[in-house]
Structures are given as structure tokens and as C-alpha cells.
Design brief:
Shape: extended
Largest sheet: 3 strands, antiparallel
Number of helices: 2
Strand content: 15-25%
Distance between the termini: 54 Å
Length: 155
């Protein structure tokens, strides 16, 4: 038989997940960040340089004849670029402190370099006064890496 009660057979109220109350925020009427909340491009670039140097140091290992021993592997570079982007996002957020109205988007590219030139570009629709980007590159004779961190202000 089907019961019309609100309780499920064999379940107690303690078994159901707790529901968080709905948070209601007041308008702040702020259209730009405070001075201490702005994205610091120089600080982010320094962090990104350190991460690229640390993560790609193994590509500078040399064989017995003094040549770079690292060889390109697409799967390894894909995983490496994902790790680099995730670590950049984590460390830039931690170092930036209080930036409650910025969304950070990090992108990293790692690829093989055979003496050719490489250019990485991106296009975005953004507010030229409030949104910004930090970028850095790392390269040796076998591999290149480009990392970008976009800081987008939202109201």
C-alpha cells in the first residue's frame, strides 16, 4: 500500500542530509576594488616564474655526452601543463590575500621546441581598467612553457 505521509519507509530524519540556509547578501554599491584588493601583476609573475622553473627543471637534465636528455611526450606535457595551471591558481590565490571580487583563470601550455619560434595569444572581452593578466614564459632547447593568469573583476 502507498502511504500519503511525508516519511519514507525505513528512513529516519537523521539519515537525511542537512540543508544549509540560503544566504542573502546586501548590495555594496561598489563598482571597483579597494586599493588593497587589487590584483598584483608583479607578485603573480614572480610566483609563476618560480613554479615554471621548479616544474620544468627536470628537462634540463643532461646525458653522458652533455646533451639534453628529455624527450617530448604529448601525454606528459598535457599532465604537466594541468599541474602547472592548478599550482599557479592555488599559490596566486594564497599570496594575493583578500581579493573577494576577482575571479582567477590560469592557463599553461607546455610543448616541444625544435628551434622554431612560438607565439601564444588570447583574446578576451573585459574591462580595461579593472581586469588584468599576468604572463610568463620558460624555455630551453627542447621545451617551452607559457603560463597566463587572468584576473577578472566582477561586481
Amino acid at each position: 500500500p502507498i502511504s500519503s505521509g511525508s516519511r519514507l519507509p525505513g528512513r529516519n530524519m537523521e539519515d537525511l542530509p542537512a540543508v544549509e540556509p540560503v544566504k542573502i547578501y546586501e548590495n555594496t554599491y561598489r563598482l571597483e576594488p579597494a586599493d588593497n584588493e587589487k590584483f598584483k601583476v608583479g607578485r603573480a609573475q614572480k610566483i609563476m616564474d618560480e613554479i615554471l622553473a621548479e616544474k620544468l627543471a627536470f628537462t634540463n637534465d643532461r646525458d653522458k655526452k652533455g646533451r639534453l636528455a628529455w624527450t617530448y611526450d604529448a601525454d606528459e606535457c598535457r599532465e604537466l601543463s594541468q599541474d602547472i595551471a592548478a599550482e599557479i591558481l592555488e599559490k596566486v590565490k594564497a599570496a594575493s590575500g583578500e581579493m573577494p571580487r576577482y575571479k582567477l583563470v590560469c592557463q599553461a601550455t607546455v610543448g616541444e621546441s625544435n628551434g622554431q619560434s612560438m607565439r601564444v595569444a588570447s583574446r578576451c572581452l573585459w574591462d580595461k581598467d579593472l581586469d588584468t593578466c599576468a604572463e610568463t614564459t620558460w624555455t630551453n632547447n627542447k621545451v617551452y612553457a607559457v603560463a597566463m593568469c587572468f584576473a577578472l573583476y566582477y561586481e
